[in-house]
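Protocol step 4 of 6: structure prediction from sequence.
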Amino acid sequence: MRDDYSQEKNENFKAISIGFLLIIIIAAITFLKPYFNQTKVAEKTAENNVAARANIDFTKINKITSEELAKKIQTDSEFIVIDIRSESDYQKEHIIDSQNISLNRLSSAFNILDKNKTYVFIDETINIAAINNLANLLAEKKYQNIYYLDGGFADWKNKFNATISDGDPKSFVDQSKVSYIKSDDLKKILEQEKNLLLIDLRNSADFNTGHLPGAINIFLADLEKRKKEITVNKKIILYDSDGLSAFKGAVRLFDLGIFNVLALSDGFDSWNKKGYATVK
């Protein structure tokens, strides 16, 4: 009887062990699948790039790799990155401090492009027609220090270089970048702490009708280019009317390497309805 019990116990243990092992295998496949998918995309992109380069006129435009561009951005102040993708693609995610001039608007933008500076143009991948048209256009205008990003923005991302994103509330990754605070808790912090920087992300007209005491006004769309105004040794509080722009702003600051940030989740409208202090 005891032997039967021991045998049954061993079989149960084996069954549990096998089940546990299967769970581990399934979990591993689930978590590693995005990595393998990304690797396949990168490999396919590389294959397409090899074929594409054969058709580019290198007498008129130079090539720069993602690795070279990353170093240039850190060391060369005369180096300007221009993203020629659509405005919506650029807004969704782009290289930090790059400018957006879509290809169909580029010919009208030459009056603002200094010929003495060096430019690198970025598309999503290697677009042969776009690159050759761009090269011809710039050659006609006598621009000389011109590069295109080899592999485009897709290659830049595949190599895990820094980008700044718009902030998608449905994205688990973006949500993980944000810490929140509510009006009641913010009121207590304002009463107890002094080393704070409050940033109102609304437009200037809304800011002038009323805002939190001591807040400065940086419109959400200007946050990236005005990042030098943000004191990083202070606790930063972002707010807008309802919390959405505060979320987006916190994501963008995270991407810029600024982490001591709280987003007011219920917004200025809730703060105001509760009768908490405001100034004009």
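Step 5 (inspection) to follow. Residues 55-165 form a domain with the Oxidized Rhodanese; domain 1 fold (CATH 3.40.250.10).
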